[in-house]
Structure formats: C-alpha cells, structure tokens
Amino acid sequence: MQIEDDTLNFFGMWEAGNFVPIKSEMKQLIISGMGGSGIGGRILAAIADSEGFTKISHWNNYNLPKWANQNCSVICVSYSGNTAETLSAAECALDIGCNLEVITTGGRLKKIAEKNNLHITEIEKGHQPRAALPLLLKALIYRIGLPNLQEQINEVNNLVLPIVAAKNIASQLKGTIPCIYSSDLMNPVAYRWRCQIEENAKQLAFNHQIPEMNHNEIVGWTLPNNKMSVILIRDNNEKAQIKNRFEATKNVAWNEVEIVECVAEGKTPLTRIMSMIILGDLVSIELAKLNNIDPTPVEVIENLKNELGGK
C-alpha cells in the first residue's frame, strides 16, 4: 500500500529533495494550502505563535483574507498544483500585489508562477499529498527559516518510528469515534490526527482545543456516547495553566471514560510536533488494517472534485 510505504519512509522523505535555504524577510506571511498540502502552514503558524520569530497565518479557503495587502508575503502550497482554492489564492495575491511564491510538483500553479516569474520550489512527485508532508514542510521551513533550524532538523531525524505504540493505540480506537484534544503547539497535530484517521482509516473523528473546549464541548460529555473515545495530545513542555486544565478536565468530564494519552518527545518545537504527527500517521495506518480497508484511495474526494468540475 502506497500510503503505508510512504509513512514508514517518513524520515527518508524528510531527507529527500534539494531545497535551497533562503530566509525571506516576511513580517506578515500567509501560507495558503488545502488538506495534506495545508498542514505545513498550520504547523509553521503554531511554531511562530510559540516562538514569536515572525507572524504567520495559515489560509485554507478561496482567495485571501480581506486584510491581506501588498505588504504581505504569500506562499501557495499545492502538491498537485491544481487545487482550486489555492489557485484562487495565488491569483488573488497577484491582483493585490503581494510577494508571492509557490511550492508544488507542477500543474496550473507552476504555470502561473512561471508566467509571472515567481520563485518555485518544485518537489518530488509520486506521493499522496497527505503522505508528502515531510517534503512540503521541509520546503516551507527552508524558505521561511526557524530559530536553531539545524538543531531542530537533526533532532527530528533522530526520532524513532513508534510502531508498537501505534498498534496499541489503534486497537483501542477501533470501532469508536475518536475525539482528539490538544492545546497550543499541539493543535495542528490533533487536526492532523483527525484528518489522517478520516482519510486513511475511513473512520470519522473530531478534534478540539483546550482551553476553548472547557467553555462549550465539555458539556457534551455530560451524557457520553460509549462509541466515543478520547485522545489527549500533550506537549512535554506544557504551561502550568494548560496542565491544570487537562488534569481538571479528565477528572470532571472523563472520570468514567477510557483515555488514550500521548506525550510529545523532544526538546525543540518542531521535534515535539513531528513526534506526535508520525505517531498519529502510523495509528491511522494500523486502524485501516483493523478496518480491513486500503488507506490510499480517497474516492469520495475525487467524486466531489468531479462534481465541482474543478471549481
């Protein structure tokens, strides 16, 4: 299965590619991307919020936010180069006069970039977009820059594939609707877990954030459904307030619910994020096996694209 092979080759893909490390002076950066091509923008925005080295907004819609102006830099990321929403964002950026560049394997996005003499980071073809995260994220990181970049990449490359842990977690989630909770730096991780479980295991999942869920969704656990399972994605560097929120929520909302608790590994923000993403990716593959389903095809998405006619 292609998705499984790509997931197991996660760190090999991280090394793949010939990206030129160029740090642009980007005071306000918008990263446009959808689905598997958009998760990198979420990750970089979370790290920027945590580290404060620049201001990054991730955008997963048509056009661009109304506040965007010619002082913004925009990076459009589309693995196929044919994502309708991202093409719309690129055209909008050109109309506004933003500093625009693209990351893609080709398609219409590359043609737009070539026509307008934009910088193109062209990456390796032949993967599902959601499985090409290491390629897309590495390209983004080298374009934007990160504090202590080489230290962060070296630490990521030293992570070990948590295959046994993934099998154990998948066995606990089979037949349930996983509800995935996170905070701060781990928010894009919870979103990734949700998307990977849905696309690879063809199994519905949800995610929410602490502390926000303490003001709404927590009430929904008053009458919990026994088909629901709880996954907590924890940072090993949590703020005291967030740690207290997690522990209090466990006691108040889930004292009779079995919880799967996963704690990030590593010292640097990128490593902590990637340690949890690779675990979630492997969990989704193991769930697909337990569900006796091929994780690679996403037929309903292709049907939707045909229905929309590329619009």
Give a written overview of the molecule:
This protein has 311 residues and is an alpha/beta fold. It has 2 domains: 2-147, Rossmann fold; 159-290, Rossmann fold. The protein is 47% helix and 15% strand. The chain contains 12 helices and 9 strands. Strands 2-1-3-4-5 form a 5-stranded parallel beta sheet, with helices on both faces. It has a 4-stranded parallel beta sheet with strand order 7-6-8-9, with helices on one face. α1 (2-8) packs antiparallel against α11, α3 (35-51) crosses α6 (133-144) and α3 (35-51) packs antiparallel against α9 (187-201).
Q: Please name the CATH topology of the largest domain.
A: Rossmann fold
Structural Rg:
19 Å
Q: Helix tally?
A: 12
Please indicate the count of domains.
Answer: 2
* Approximate helicity band: 40-55%
Q: Could you name the ranges where pLDDT drops below 50 across 5 or more consecutive residues?
A: none
Summarize the structure.
By secondary structure, the chain is of the alpha/beta class. It has helices at residues 2-8, 10-15, 35-51, 84-96, 107-115, 133-144, 149-157, 163-173, 187-201, 240-253, 269-290, 299-308, and strands spanning 28-32, 55-59, 73-78, 99-104, 119-122, 177-182, 206-209, 228-234, 259-263.
